[in-house]
Amino acid sequence: MVRLPCPLLLLLPLLRVSAATPEPCQIDDEDVRCVCNFTHPQPDWSSALQCVAAVEVEIRGGGRSLDEFLLKSASANPKQYADMLKALRLRRLTVGAARVPAQILALVLHALGFSRLKELTLEDLEVTGQVPPPLQETPGPALTTLRLRNVSWATGGAWLGELQQWLQPSLKVLKVAQASSLAFPCAQLRAFPALTTLDLSDNPGLGERGLTAALCPRKFPALEDLALRNAGVETPSGVCAALAGAGVQPHRLDLSHNSLRATAAGARECVWPAALSSLNLSFAELEQVPKGLPPKLTVLDLSCNKLNRAPRPEELPAVDDLTLEGNPYMDPEALQHQEDPMASGVVPPCARSALTMGVSGTLALLQGARGFA
Ligand SMILES: *[C@@H]1O[C@H](CO)[C@@H](O)[C@H](O)[C@H]1NC(C)=O
Ligand SMILES: *[C@@H]1O[C@H](CO)[C@@H](O)[C@H](O)[C@H]1NC(C)=O
Ligand SMILES: *[C@@H]1O[C@H](CO)[C@@H](O)[C@H](O)[C@H]1NC(C)=O
Fold this sequence. Notes:
The chain is α/β, with parallel strands linked by helices. It is 21% helix and 20% strand. Helix 6 (207-214) runs parallel beside helix 7 (236-246).
């Protein structure tokens, strides 16, 4: 067996060449993007070697379990390959479609700590076991962006704290979609000092209650953008309460693609973050402008709702840039398009996004059983 320094091969250290299988990895002509799809039952792992020169690498495991590598990984020490890992051009890595023991994930993060990786994406993974903490001398990668979609963790909401131990405090963007748990035990979480964007979109089971559990107080001091598209949010005032409770001060808040109600039953007045300047309420099925919006905004997007009449000035906050397109009172066909996007040959902007919403709706059904408590 050949021993190679590439983190891809640390993840998959078994080099078993079988001539009959098709080449699982493909690199583009510019040596920038390399994509591996190990769906074959006995894939040729050595094919990953061609990705060594790539800047962007994507690896899909065909849903396989990586348990078999657990024993082999026990003796691996990425440190001995530190110089070669440092020399890799790798900046963006996507790993998807596999069942991964947490110890292997830790080993990969350890190896990536010697690389100059900036963006890591994990998709359709099931992480088993608890992610072990790093040895003090080995920080993980200095990521700027971490994206997770449909990643489930054996340790529930503790996953973020476990993962965070492996990351240097450089993270600027964190996106978590289709999460199994966003109820983070706040005491175990350290602050994210550089995080400016938190995107919890496409978590239809989240809602205001889940948001309150996810936004640990004082852990997101630099937050500027909070995206909650299709996140089961019911009222802007409920979000306001969650933000106030957590002391989170975003500048931009995206609540589009939620079924919003205009008034919350028994809602209390809430003080919006002073820095909030942009609010997106498009595709929110609103028949009226919701009550309790921030008194003053730079941007308010109310496009593609179900407003049947023009909002009266006293119903709206003071706003510089107001978007009301795609509401039935302005465009009588808008509603029809939203309900039946295929009705006409031309696809108006609201209809196109309503289609995407259809996809998210399916997701909501798939996710229905998952809890956020
Ligand atoms: C991986 O390969 C399988 C079978 O060859 C194919 O069905 C699947 O769509 C591929 N996945 C990706 C992400 O390319
Ligand atoms: C989520 O990931 C699991 C693997 O952990 C996969 O079986 C499932 O199909 C994925 N779900 C979606 C909606 O992609
Ligand atoms: C508001 O959200 C919609 C849908 O998510 C998006 O298309 C639109 O560009 C956003 N508006 C602003 C002002 O960012």
